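hi!! sorry for the late reply, been swamped w classes. u asked for the two structures so here they r. pasted raw, havent cleaned anything up. first the sequence of the first protein and right below it the tokens
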Amino acid sequence: MTEQSNPTRMELLKIKERITLATKGHKLLKQKRDALILEFFKILKKSKDIRSKLNVKMKNAYSALAVANAYHSAFELEAISLANARIMDVDVQVKNVMGVKIPHLISDIETRPYPSKGYSISGTTSMLEQCIEEYEQVLDMALQLAETEIAIKRLISEIEKTKRRVNSLEFIMIPRLDEQKKMIAFKLDELERDGFISLKVIKRKLERERGLL
């Protein structure tokens, strides 16, 4: 429903200013939406690449575990696994993309020294060390995948929000303001015509009155 506006020159000027502001806002929001969409596809591709590599890495890790099983008993593997268990330290850095906070997760997996890994190099075989290394890489890649999944969800949410605002401006607010502007301009023209006609009538009346004197 169209808002009722006073048919004045001042009101017409205000409406025009609101249209200019809404048009600029619409343009900026479209640019933001496009930038977010580009970032979304960039991260989506990265996520697919990581997932593909993770699948390959998982197969390698399972194969390495099978080889380690041939050289170590189940008891040895379980003992080393329990000794190696620890809370992983993760540093969270934030990247700001058009107002969206994208996390960057950095773990300490690759930088952990052997003493903190829970086993001795001299007490293990190269097959077991390879197995542990493969699974550490799996864990690190899983962390990278989680990072991209979080980013994708946040970007989708912001893209949808921005699209709603763009559509609201494009299909509701700006057309409504345009309609108000046309209505005020039409009423002002009517008032101007009415005033002009009234002046002509008054002028003729005055001329007739002068003619009678």
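now the second protein. again sequence first, tokens right under
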Amino acid sequence: MLKFLSCGLVISALAITASKAGPFDVAPSLPEGTGFALPPTAAPQKPDPWKGLTLGTDVFAISGLGKGTRSGFGAEGFIGYDQAFDNHVLLGLRGSAGYLPGIVQGGPAGYNFGMLDAKLGYNMGRLTPWVALGGGIAKASPLAATTPNVGTSLNSLFADSQKGATFTRASAGFDYALTNNLTVGMSVGVLQFHGNGLDPATPPP
């Protein structure tokens, strides 16, 4: 948003009265009742309670490593909060939920997940590079999600009685602010599952 600052120029007239003592013996004086107009005082700005709050969606591709794995697409919805400091360092916290494709052939088609990430970034104006580390829980889904849904993923996580598996994720990327309210970004990351040493998409022995 552009803000314009207008300045008023106040011109005051000074009446100069000459003394009979000499041509350079003069003293300025103000007519009775003359005063100076003070510039208007700007009203203090109230802090924006929504500043730092982030909402959005991510679409991503996942590829398994090794034989017997496959690739697929997933999506997540997230909500988070970013705190920027005067030295341009940015700290953030983000919670997300969504759908991951199954990457093991012969295993479930995919699984629902929820996770929490901590982010460290550096604000360079509209561009903010960052790194993040997080963890979460995933539960295998019997059917592939044609349209990933955050509500469905959350319901599956808390309502499903299966144990599920924990995982961690390390990622790095950048955000670019197209406008003050719209940001796009790109990142890469590594995901590691820890459920009894097995990927939740791996069928039990």
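hope this helps!! also noticed smth abt the second:
The domain at 53-193 is CATH 2.40.160.20 (Porin).
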